[in-house]
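Quick log. Single chain, no ligands specified.
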Amino acid sequence: MAGGLLAQNCPDRALGTVVGNGDDVMLSIRPIGFAFPFAGATYTDVHICTNGYFHLSNAGVPAPGVGDGSSTAAELASGSPRICALWSDHNLTTANGANVYINSTPTKCTITWDRAITFGSTSGTLFSFQAQLLPTGEVKFYYDANTTNNSTFSAAFAAGLVGASPGVGAVLPAASDISVGGATTDNTLFETYAALGFDMPLQSLQLIPTNPGWAYVATPWSGCAATSQYGTGCYKAADSIYEFFATAASNDLNGRTITMLRQPNGYLVLDSIPGTFVTPSGTAQVIAVGDDVVSPALPLSASMPVAGGSTSSIVVNSNGVVNLSGTGNGAGFDPVTATFLGWAQTAVCCWHDYNNTIAGSGSVKFEEVGGIAYVTWDGVYSFLTTTPDTVQFQLNVATGDITIVFSAIGAAGDPYLVGYSVGGPSVNPGATDLSTALATPVTVNDAALAELKLAPAGLPFLGNASFGLTISDVPALVPLAFAFFGSGALPGIDLGFAGAGGCSAYTTADFGALTVPIVGTSGTQPFAIPNNPAFIGVSLTAQGAAFTLLNSLGLVTSNGVQFTVGG
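-> predicted structure:
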């Protein structure tokens, strides 16, 4: 454990009041709290956009622009006066508890984009960043460790921009490399970033007006509250596997084969067994004729082993989905990970917006030959294109083995989602790079089991009485869990010697443990942080544990959490 008085360079934790949230929203006008000097004028109000910037005005004059997720330097210079903490395609959703906040006082105006996510991101990683305005005209930005620009919508929306300009037709100077520090004699200052190019996480950026121009310096955070998670809990068993290709061109499975070998309780998924495309015979049945349609039940010659038992028929969605256990997945054309994981019926798919009714397109075909049921998208066009795909699903009726042969992927049109998911809500295992990861076989179970998880609730800054640790995915055995605390982190010591093989120790646990009441499958242990500067820099580790019947120790363990007290 370490502590002491440290120089602090941290964001303001007093966020103030909620302004609003949403996607591409220009929020209502708010007072700054003082007359803010900017490029030879003063302004009393801000108009904050959820996409990481705000316009300046005096009671709405000049008028702000609309919410815009595509950042360009030309717009910065031509629009209303604007300051950009990180102008990019952010999304602040109610589901994530995200909001824009403002704290206006006579000495500082603080604007915070809290719990944002990049639009279209599938990672689920949230981030927060902040802008501060001072009566001197100084501007400060603070970026947390996850702050990024990575919208999957398009390259234009993935771009990012940091800077400021009086706008209204200002002359656009050359871009600056803001992160290295420097000065400019122009009142328009900016740096642009390609997708994932933002380079100032865990730094502050100070803009000092020199009238005209700016001095700018980036400085690492210091003495700030911080948390991190490391390691993995036990025991995790996935009941799905997938890769989402956000753009058609990113689909790299052309010419590949994925093999799913049926096991007693799931599948062994690999790509080391070559597959052979079997050309549909002249008697193959043309099925799922139409755009976004589902076929009738297609009978198999015998009951095929699948998750939960067996099936004597399959159902096909014209958009690349083979349902192994019924019709409940619909005819959707837009591949969405959450929808895939929540499908009511077990399915295997190359989910993509196909349209077999376009003139010249091939057909979706079905036949069973020699105990193998073949479902083939035989030269079927992607929607609004004349680019064909040929993909074949080969189902071994006797064994339950499944082979997917990607004979020809045109990689045109809309996104793809390739994978397998057991019917009913599935635990998200995260995306798998199917073109590389299957060199080592991956196990997919018939029933999912989520690993025990430990996560910080809030940040451990001085005086935060609501900081805590949340244990989730607790087995439904005893409504109780434990949080162990220690002075140091362990690299993950396997607990097989104690009867819990596959579980690991991540904390020294020399500070003992607290019990955590569980409601449902989760619970939070409060851990109030004293308002005493002597605690700045104090660092602890923690790990959760809960009861189980899956090993002789009778406990499962979580990942580790390290937290450092700061300002």
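Residues 1-5 have pLDDT under 50 and may be disordered.
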